[in-house]
Every structure is written in structure tokens, then in C-alpha cells.
Task: inverse folding
């Protein structure tokens, strides 16, 4: 009798839950509340050696570099920024639902191409993937349990979306919106970080493992995504005057402390990040159907203004 | 002995294949060639009753409507366009990596809101999904074998990306880049097609089954995706002067035949479409790693200028 009563109670409880779900889906703590309640220790400062500031007339774009995934490219990008390589160069290409790309408009012309600054290499190895061991605890890798249609294992490490294949023992940065890569021509080792692109559309995951990914835009991606699309092949601009010029690109370490952006990034190994993912899985409120899952490329790691010292 | 020789030969053949793949991946016929060789019968004309032309100063946006998936909304959108409802209204909201939305800036103010034209309804039912039977052979549904992380069955019907769940017996349009939906407020039946949005970022599939999707932009989506992002909450513009105005929106059937865009759309039930999907799965050329798969939202159905009559 007791068991039977218990079962009846359970059944009623489940029925009630089910009815409530039909009216409004099970809701996790909403993202705004998760962020408001997040402990200070779940946020980190920008790393001066791995942050680029790109100044456009319209505003500033901030890029976090990923030395764990592309050490040679990141070292070269640091040298290029230190040498003022991109200052006065331009955005060359905006292809709708794909990428915005910048570099030297005369890069293909040896006579006119801007010379590389001291310390920068013209030639680098391809860095399309790393040994899977490199995304272990040291990198604060947190696995994403949700299904991904491109890779058998995914997650986040140091703020970046990561995919991996235990059967090949390789891990790589996924081409999500806002990810930055190093353009190359036909040979795999033809990128040196001088020409960079950012994803501005649906994640082109087919590029994964085909090109070196070097980082992620953490602020100002809209300045690169809202540019007029180029009308020549692959979104290149037809005429030089259509290009947006780049005022300068600096490594954060080279910027006076007082001038550095007061910005923090959420740690992807934090509980807050897990709660934000849950807030996307179980949305409540306006949503009447719970997605019940998140997409590796569907959840951008948030930033916030550095709060005043207590 | 014979078996053993055969096995050896097979092993050698496999090893050779494997080495060739490492150098350059198995390539399907490239997309450009597939399109060039496509038979005229794989293309279709625009349907005058299900095509909207939206004129902006920057150019024309063409939208195909999906009456099979949202019959009440599409009927209302036809009536709204016929009554000139959107003429002189505006783009109200551009949220980066999400949506561009348009409608009546005074829509929330009953005293100032533009009245609905004759034949348009203020209230419609929610049309978030349809019975799965509706995407059968009649709709030319072709299944996509590739894994999707959001739905157990996906494919294409009448040019649209479709997801379905046989366990619930429902099918719906997927929120891919370029898909157009009808904005709603908190109640599920609060959309009437007056306020429309288009996806301009990574597919927000979490919206699937939560809102009525009415069609897809087949041309000119970049005119809506490259607009400056609004800086108020949800990408709304702060000031009226930041909005892009809409010159007019017409149903193709109401446009003089001589003025209609000479455009064709590839049939998604065609062999050419299957070949294009294969060209994305097995890319060759610049690619050194074959993705081996496509993404429901990663392959847009192409259009082309109507070829001259032979």
C-alpha cells in the first residue's frame, strides 16, 4: 500500500511537472542572474602578452590569442604587432556569412609589399591541430556533453571552443563566430600571421583542421561583421577606396597600463560558465520549447567591464 | 594462397588510397563545375505568390515564403505586402550574430501604429511546426544523412532547411542563416507577420519550435547583415535616425512581369543539389582535411540569373 501510494504520488508529481513544462519549460537560472551573481574569482584579466588591440575609425576590436594551439603563429603575430606591421594597412575582404580578412593590400606584390618587422618570420609551420594531451587540466579544459555533429569530443579551454578526436589524438580550435585564423594559400605552411580573418557567419566548421586558428575576437566583432561586403570574388573589394583602413594594431603589453581596456573575461573552467550553458539549454520565460542542448558555437564566452576594486 | 594474395592486394590498395588522401583529400566534383553542368530542369522560377521583393536604398532583398510551413502567416504577409503595409517603415533592430528585424517603429503605440490593410489579420495562430506528413514527397523532401545535433531528422523541402522529430510527429523550418521569421512577444500567438526578422549569424537553432518561421532570403541577405548594429538592448536602435528605411515591399505577383527579377532557384529535390552537398563534404583542392559531412545550416541553396531562352 505504501509503495502504491508512493507510486501514485510520484505519478501525480510527474504529471504536474509535465503540465507545467508544457506551459513554460523547465528554466535554469537565467543568464542575466547568473552573471549578476557570479563570484569575482570566476573572471580573469586580459593577458597582456596574448591580447591584440586593433583600432579602426569605428572603434576598437580586441582579440585574445591562443598560444597553446598556435605557438609559432602567436609568437609571429606578437612580433608583427610590436613592429607596427598592420598600422595603416586595411580590411581587404568581407564575404557574407563567412569571413572578414585584413592585411597588406600589396602583399602579393614583392616590390610593394610591406616588409616584415624585425623578429617576424616570413615562414611558419602549419598549426592546424595539437596533441590532445595539450587540452588537459593545464588548459582548464571543460568538456561539453552536448552532441556536436563535427567532432566526437568538444569543450572549452582558456576561453576558446575546442574540438578533439581521441581516435587521432588531436585537438583543435573550432571555427565558431568570432574566431580568428591565419589566411594561407595552397600550401599548408603558407600562412605567417600577416593576413588574418575572423568568422562572421554560421560556423564554417569545414575549415577546421585545414588552417591555423590563432584566437578569438572578444570585443568589437560587430565592427568587422557589419562592414559592406566586397563584390569581387570571395568578397574582396573591387576598389581600394572601398577598403576600411586599420589605424593600428598593438599588443596589449605595449600599451600604457592606464590606456588598457578595463575588461574581464569569464573563465570557461568556472561554475558560472557551466550555469550560463545551462541557461541556454533550459531557457524558460519567452521560450515554450526547451532546446535542452547547446551548440559549441552557439554560446560566446562573455566579457564585462572590470568592476571597481572593493 | 589466393585469398591471402587478394588480402595483400587489398591491403596495398587501401594503403595507397590512404596515402593519396593524406596528400589531397578525396574530392567530389567541385561546386562550380556542378553548377555549370546542371541541367535546366534542376532549376525553377520564382513563385509570384510566394516571393517578396523588399526595396532598400542599398538594393533589393528577395524572400521566398513557405506556405507549407506557415500558411496563415504567409497569407497575412501577402495581404500586408499587397496593402503596402511596410512601405516607408524601417529596420528597427540589428543584433550582432543574431537577427535583423523590421516593422513599424510605432507598432507598440496604438494611437500611432500603422493600420493593417484590408484583408490582413491582427491575430494569427502560432505556426511553430507542422505534421511530419507534410514534408513528404509532395514537398519534394530530401533527407540529409549527415548528423545534426539539434534534430533526429533533417533535410530540405522546397528550398528550405527542415528539421523533424518522428517521435513527436512534427516537422519545422530550421533557424539557419538567412531564414525569416515572424517576431512575437510573450504569448505564442502574438505574431501576425507585421514584424519580421532574418537570421544574420550562427544558426540560433534554440529558436526552433519557439516561433513561426515564414521563409528565407534568397538574394540580398548581405544588405540586411551588413547594417550597423543597434546599441540599445537586443540590438534596437537608440535613435530613429539610425534606422534604415524600407522603400517598399511587394508581392512578386503584383510586379509587372517585365520588372520581375530574372532569377532561378535550384530545386532541392534535384541531383545537382545532392552533388553540391557532396562538393562540400569532399572538397579537395585547397582543403587537406575532408570534412566528410555537411551541416544543415552550412549549405545555402543557390540562385542564378535566368538563362536566356535557347
Result:
Amino acid at each position: 500500500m505504501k509503495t502504491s501510494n508512493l507510486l501514485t504520488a510520484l505519478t501525480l508529481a510527474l504529471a504536474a511537472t509535465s503540465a507545467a513544462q508544457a506551459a513554460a519549460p523547465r528554466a535554469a537560472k537565467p543568464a542575466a542572474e547568473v552573471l549578476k551573481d557570479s563570484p569575482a574569482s570566476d573572471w580573469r584579466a586580459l593577458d597582456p602578452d596574448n591580447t591584440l588591440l586593433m583600432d579602426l575609425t569605428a572603434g576598437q576590436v580586441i582579440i585574445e590569442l591562443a598560444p597553446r594551439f598556435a605557438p609559432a603563429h602567436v609568437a609571429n603575430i606578437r612580433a608583427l604587432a610590436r613592429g607596427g606591421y598592420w598600422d595603416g594597412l586595411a580590411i581587404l575582404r568581407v564575404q557574407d556569412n563567412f569571413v572578414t580578412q585584413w592585411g597588406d593590400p600589396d602583399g602579393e606584390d614583392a616590390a610593394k609589399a610591406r616588409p616584415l618587422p624585425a623578429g617576424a618570420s616570413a615562414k611558419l609551420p602549419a598549426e592546424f591541430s595539437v596533441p590532445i594531451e595539450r587540452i588537459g587540466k593545464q588548459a582548464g579544459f571543460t568538456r561539453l556533453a552536448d552532441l556536436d555533429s563535427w567532432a566526437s569530443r568538444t569543450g572549452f579551454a582558456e576561453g576558446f571552443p575546442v574540438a578533439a578526436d581521441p581516435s587521432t589524438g588531436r585537438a583543435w580550435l573550432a571555427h565558431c563566430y568570432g574566431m580568428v585564423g591565419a589566411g594561407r594559400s595552397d600550401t599548408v605552411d603558407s600562412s605567417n600571421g600577416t593576413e588574418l580573418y575572423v568568422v562572421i557567419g554560421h560556423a564554417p566548421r569545414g575549415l577546421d583542421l585545414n588552417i591555423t586558428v590563432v584566437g578569438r575576437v572578444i570585443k568589437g566583432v560587430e565592427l568587422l561583421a557589419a562592414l559592406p561586403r566586397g563584390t569581387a570574388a570571395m568578397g574582396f573589394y573591387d576598389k581600394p577606396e572601398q577598403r576600411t583602413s586599420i589605424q593600428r594594431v598593438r599588443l596589449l603589453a605595449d600599451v600604457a597600463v592606464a590606456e588598457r581596456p578595463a575588461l574581464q573575461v569569464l573563465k570557461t573552467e568556472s561554475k558560472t560558465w557551466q550555469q550560463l550553458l545551462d541557461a541556454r539549454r533550459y531557457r524558460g520565460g519567452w521560450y515554450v520549447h526547451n532546446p535542452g542542448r547547446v551548440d559549441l558555437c552557439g554560446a560566446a564566452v562573455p566579457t564585462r567591464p572590470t568592476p571597481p576594486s572593493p
Observations:
- The radius of gyration of chain A is 22 Å.
- Chain A touches chain B at residues 94, 96-97, 128, 146-150, 176-178, 186, 188, 201-206, 208-210, 221-222, 225-229, 280, 283, 286-289, 291, 293-295, 297-298, 300 (CB under 8 Å).
- Chain A is about 20% helix and 25% strand.
- The helical segments of chain A are 2-23, 31-36, 71-82, 221-225, 271-281.
